[in-house]
Amino acid sequence: MKYLDRLLEVDSEDRSTFQIMLWWEIRRILYNIVVLAFGIISLVIISVIVNVPPGEDLVEPFAIIGFGILCNLGYSLGWLTEIFRKKNKKYGPKMFKIGLYFTLFFVFLPLAIHIVLWALRGFKTMY
Question: Contact, 115 vs 61, CB < 8 A?
Answer without folding.
Answer: no
